[in-house]
Structure formats: C-alpha cells, structure tokens
Amino acid sequence: MAVSFNQIPSSIRVPLCYVEFDNSGALTSTPVMEWRLLLVGQAAADCEGPLLTPTLITSADQAAKLWGQGSMLASMFRYAKRQGGILETWGLAVPDPEAAVAAGGDVTLSGSCSASGVISLYIGGERVRALAQAGEALTVTAARLAATINENGELPVTASTAEDQLGVIKLTCRWKGATGNDIDLQINYGTDDALPQGLRVACGSMSGGAGDPDMAAIVAALGDTWWKAMSCPYLRKAERDILEEWLDAQFGPLRQQECQVFGAFRGTLAEASAYGNAGNSELVSVLAIGAMPSSPWDAAAAYAMRAATSLADDPARPLQTLELTGLKTPRREDRWNMEERNILLYDGMATFMVASDDTVQIEREVTMYQKNSWGMADPSYLDVQTPATLGYWRYAVRSRILQKYSRHKLADDGTRYGPGQAIVTPSVIRAELIALLGEMEEKGLLENLEAFKSGLIVERNKDDRNRLDVLAPPDLVNQFRVFAMQTRFIL
C-alpha cells in the first residue's frame, strides 16, 4: 500500500467508495500564537470572588465586584484595561498573608484657613479634593477630608481622624502586607493645585506594613495553563527566587510554556540599582518607577498589558515610546536624568521616559538578565524581545512538526519508499525548517536565511533510531534602539 490512510482500513471488502479527510497539510503559513495575561494581586478581606483560582476577567468592573472595589487586584485591572487592546486577561486573587500587618500613614493639617479653598491630596496617584472653609476648626476640615477619602471606594486606603491629635488623619491600607508601604502620599501634585490661604498640610509616608503572600501557593495555583505574560507585585528576592524557579521550568524544553513576568519597583536610584543587580532572570522585566506617584502594582499591570499586547502582535518589535496610560510622572525635580537611566539599564532595570505632554512612556524594556553562569557580563537576553521571539520560533516549529508529521515513520535519506506514504527523512525535515524560517524572515522575525541553511544540522540519533536530532541556528531580528551619526560639515 503506497498511501498511508488514517481512517480507512486496508482490510475492508464492503463496496464501494470511502473518502477520509486529512488536515495535516492544511496550514500554509506560520500560526498565530495566543497570548494570555495573568494579573496577580491581593483581594479585599471580605471579597466574594475565588481566591488562588485563575479567573477570566473581561472588565475592571467585574474584577471590582469579585475581589473588592478598593482591592489591589481591582486597581491593577483598572490600569491594565486603560491600556486598550483585546488581550485575554485573567486574575489570580491572593489572600492577605497570615500574621501580616497593614501599612499606615498620617496626613496632618495645621495653621488656620483664612480663605476658603480646596485641598488636593494624592493617594497612590489618585487625586482627592476636599473643601476647606475660612475660619473653620481644623477638626472639621480634617473630618471632611477623611470622609471624602472614604467616599472614594477605589482608593487603596481608608481614613479616620485622631481624636487625641488635632488635625491628624490616619490612613490605613485596605490590605495587609509590605506592599502597602509603597502607597505614595502627596499634596498639590497638579500644576493647578494650591492650598487654601493659611492652611498647611503635611503628608507622612506609609509605613509599618509587614508580610508577603506565600509565593509557593501562588505558583501552585498557576496549574497547567499556559500563561504567556504575568504581572506580579511580589518580586522581592525571596519571592522572586521561587517564581523564577517555576519560570525556568516553563521556559525549558520539557514544558515549553514560556512566561514573561512584568513588575515595577519604587525606590531611589541606589535602591533600584541594588534591586536590579540582585536578579538575573531573562524572563523577568521590572520597571524602575522612582518617585512616580502611581503605585507599583498599578504600574506593573499597565506595563504588563502594554508589553504583552505588543509582543503578541510582533514579538520582535521594540516597546519604546508606548504610553503607559494613567500613570503619573514624578515631579520634575525627582525625575532621573539620562545618565541615571543608563545606569539602571546596565543594572537590569527597565526604564520609562516622560513625553512632552507629561505622559509616561516605555523607554527600554530590558530584562533582569545580566550575567552568564560564570558571572561574566552577557547581553544575550538583554531585551524582552529575545525570549519572546524565541518562544514564537519554538511554537512555530512545534506547530509545523506536530501538524504535518504527527504519525510518520522515520527513514534514512535515499530510502526507496513508495509515494504517498507517511514517512519522513532528515532531508524532508531540513527542507521544512528552511521553509519555516523563510516564512518568519518574511514576517520580520528572523534573518540571514543562507546562514541558517549553512549551520542547520538534521540527523538521526545513533542510539535511538526513532529520534531525529536537529541543531538550528536562527538569527533573530534585532530592534532599532540607537541611531549614531557624525556630521562632518564643510563651510
């Protein structure tokens, strides 16, 4: 029998005509790769939604209903959805850590309001405006400001007045843990903000928050679903080590379900530099946000959504200049200059820039990978496009091989088998891989086809004759990052 049928048996004698269908050769182009983004964050203590269970979310309102309007995870979805796109997005709600402590901070009013006006307080980058009337007692103004804060259910804090401290408003993070310490408090951030005459407002720092969720439990909850991208606010060294162990296994040749994690870090230049140098994963990219008023988890969610949406369309295209909608820039005096940002890019930290319209844009999306196993500088995984493009290459190869050769026999080149049989030889696979690279070259993902042909090795394994071994040297398309020109002018 020459033709290898899948469903029509060779032993059938009953007449007459039998036709089967075979879709193994139906695809004539590289496949579309589906991206799935997972946002990990804490839920409200009294939420009704599932905990440690991945849940498909199609709107920020849905996330708020499930896990609490002012919860960290609901806020992350608000910022993620503001980036636009139709990327499939899931949420993993995390409960408060056991024995954790909620962060707290003070806002202190002093002086005497001699002219009515508006107090503009910024909590995690969100503006709260409260009236201050001329001649009223500080306790009245403080109570009004606290009530205004509590009326906004999307804020990450609740407010109360201190009876034994005149004009002091006590803020408490809605969830427990160390992340609450990163909630920024500012007064008069906007250019049109001004305190009422005679009134003074001092913002303390959020502090006292302690405890982090169990990263092992978070990893266990990820299951077998292929998460192409993830936003996670729990990336301190201990938690990151656990997550990176899972990421390495996912990126490996046995699971083949690579995932890239996007985070954000608040801190000084020295703190951000030290944080970046403590990591070395090609699958983690952390945006250094410095003194940005917006919260790190919101910045991480925006960064993850914007990056994943772009990489899903084209894994090799740079993200520079993409706007992170909704994030607020640091004050001018707190912004890092070019030299400082360049230092961070050498320390494994992604950077942002401020556009002329005061919007936040991605400047360069580097990974935390910096050194090889010998501790030597290694830029092979510098940008997030490298693992993203490699992931697509592997996906395309697997799709082509599994689609066309899932039930084939293996023979040596030159074997005289009849046409139409399900038999593959090394030269057939070699030709298939060359054709596939040509398709990806046309898509602008790989280059140098002739070099690929020269370096490609396809051979049967000497010890296992059922196995085909391949050494493939694809040349990944790079990104246009720097334009350098010397203008040697003539007078």
UniProtKB/TrEMBL annotation:
Residues 377-489 form the Tail sheath protein C-terminal domain. Residues 208-368 form the Tail sheath protein subtilisin-like domain. InterPro entries: Phage_sheath_subtilisin, Tail_sheath, Tail_sheath_C. Belongs to the myoviridae tail sheath protein family. This is Phage tail protein.
